[in-house]
Structures are given as structure tokens and as C-alpha cells.
Amino acid sequence: MADAKTSSKKKQRRVVSAGQLHVQATFNNTIVTFSDKKGNVLTASSAGACGFRGSKKGTAYAAQIAAEKAAESAKSLYSVASVDVFIKGVGLGREAAVRAMSNFEITVDSIKDVTGVPHGGVRPRKARWAEAMARDSSPIVKQSRREGYALHPKAHKIMARKSGIPGQHAHGRQGKQSLYATQLREKQKVRRTYGLMEKQFARLMNEASRQSGLAGENLLKLLELRLDNAVYRAGFATSRRAARQLVGHGHFMLNDRRVDIPSIRVKAGDILTVRPKSTKSGYFAQIDDVANNSSQQPLSWIKGDVKKLKIEVTGVPKREEAEVDINEQLIVEYYSR
Fold it and tell me: Going by C-beta distance under 8 Å and a sequence separation of 6 or more, which residues neighbour residue 50?
């Protein structure tokens, strides 16, 4: 029986005259890859595959050797004549790998950087205002002693027993205050009275200076029109910190809309009411006792009705209705330096 004839077809050489060059350059290695226009890999090489080790893999020379090896294979096997270059990464071998193409008469048609923009990891969850809002949580009595002014009703009793600023060596370092120190202490006293951070306070001072009239009085007017201060002035809380907490917990509605931001600025005609769900809480069940313990006197610009749990803003605060022991001119001079 005759042996069957075996026929073999000679594999034809694939010619890719125009292709793509992908250079991935990091600080540890440089990878060079040739592909066709569809992205099918033709040849590839890297600094590590060329025998470089350690920190030498990230050098420009190692990238040049890897690019020459890949280009030689692409030229001899696929007759690559021109490439579109795509560079990714910030390693030292970016330019060296591209320049090596001229040694093999491979034309570079275009160069595109496809390096991703760093963003510091996964985008964090958007924080609620209560988590992102800054506030000073240091002891209010210690702040009062530092300013020499009762910032809270409970500070009166402590300051009657302990005079002077807090600290172990406080009494030994008290001297004559300079003009700057006097201005700074007045600014700190007002800022801590209304419970603001420095950035918020400076922004209000900038806004007050741009309004018509006296900048100091404008500043006090803006501070008095804060939502938490309005709740305090209406007698619904014994301190501004307590009023801030009531607002922050969402117990009030401004013009029939629930609010929980203490810095909202109220205006004439606004009506504040306690949220229906909050009227059942123990605090508002004893609101009469809170109003009796409050030291607030009736004001011309705001009316509070603890029976109906309602606050109505009727006008604009006057200077004499703000805190009496405030020299606002010192604050204006402090920010005018």
C-alpha cells in the first residue's frame, strides 16, 4: 500500500507596515509592545526581559535597549515601517523608548499620552453637613476665663471662684497688653460668643465691610440674624450652644420647611415653628421652664411665643439690642491691619 502523500502549506509572512507602539513606563520597569491597528500584539519586550535587575530596570538606558529589541523583531518579522505611539506612565523611559525607533527607520506618525490622572484613590462618600461642619468643642468655661467674659450662663459661678486666664503658669505670664493683643482678645470674645470658627467670622467681617454704614454694627447685625441666635434670643434656649444643638437636630421649621443649618440668615417676615414631631419631646414639653430660666429681654426685631412654639422675625436688630460688652471698633481695626 502506497504511503499517503502529506502536503504542507508554507506559512506566509505577515506584513504590517503601519502599526502601534505602546510604551508603559514606570519607576520599576519599562514595557514596550508593538501591535497592529486593531491592537493585536506583534512583539513585546521589557527592561526586565533584557536582563536588567533592581533599580536599573527603571532607567532610560534600559528602556532604550528594550525598545530596540522589540523594534528589531517587529522590523524583521512584520516589516513595520510606521507607528502611532501611545505612552502611559511617568517613568524615565518614556522618551528613550520613542527615540530608539529612529535607529530602525521606523517613522513615528503621532504620539499620544494616555497616562491616567491620579485622584488619590476611590472618591470618598460625600459627607453630610453635620460631619463636615467645623465647630469649637473646647470647654466653654475655659474659653470664658481666657476672654474674661462669661460666654455661657454657667461660667458666672466658676469665674466668681477662679479669676484670671486658665493654665498652670497663667498668673506668672500676665503683663500689659499691646494694642494688637487687645484687638485680638475682643475678636476672639465675639467669635466665641456666637460660636463661629475663624474662617466663618472673617467672611462675615468681609461682607460687613462691603455694606453701607459702620462695619462694626453691620457685623453685629449679621451675627444677630443667624438662625441659632434667633432661637436663643426668642427664649427657646438658655444659651447659644443649646440653640445651635436644637437647630442642628432639625427641631425647627423655617417658613414651613425643615432646617438644620445654624448659620442660616433670617430676615423680616420669616416665621420659625417647632416641627410637629418635636413637640412631643421632653424638652419642648417643659419649654415654659426653659423660657423662665432664659435671661433674654423682649426685643424689637423678634417675637417668641412659647405657648404656640412660634418665633416671628419682625425687623432688623439694633446695635443697642446686641451684646452690650462688645467694642466692635477693635474688631474692625484688627481686620484692617
Answer: 62, 65, 66, 69
Point out the domain boundary residue: 113, 134, 159.
113
Which residue, chain included where needed, has cell 474659653?
A: 143
Helix H, strand E, coil C: the string for 185-219 is HHHHHHHHHHCCCHHHHHHHHHHHHHCCCCHHHHH
* DSSP H helices in the chain: 60-78, 94-99, 129-132, 140-147, 155-161, 179-194, 198-210, 215-224, 227-233, 240-248, 282-285, 287-293, 328-335
Residue 95, pLDDT above cutoff 60: yes
Residue pair 317/221 in contact by the 8 Å Cβ criterion: yes
* pTM passes above 0.70: no
CATH of the domain at 77: 3.30.420.80
Query: Tens digits of per-residue pLDDT, 152-165?
Result: 888 888 888 887 78
Residue 8 has pLDDT above 80, yes or no: no
Q: 219-242, pLDDT tens digit by residue? A: 999 999 999 999 999 999 999 999
In a domain, 249, yes or no: yes
Residue 5 has pLDDT above 60, yes or no: no
CATH number at residue 241: 3.10.290.10
How far apart CA 164 and CA 150 sit, in angstroms, is: 12
Helix (H, G, I), strand (E, B) or coil at 87: strand
CA distances from 151 to 67, 137, 164, 238 (A): 72, 13, 15, 12
Domain that holds residue 28: 18-113
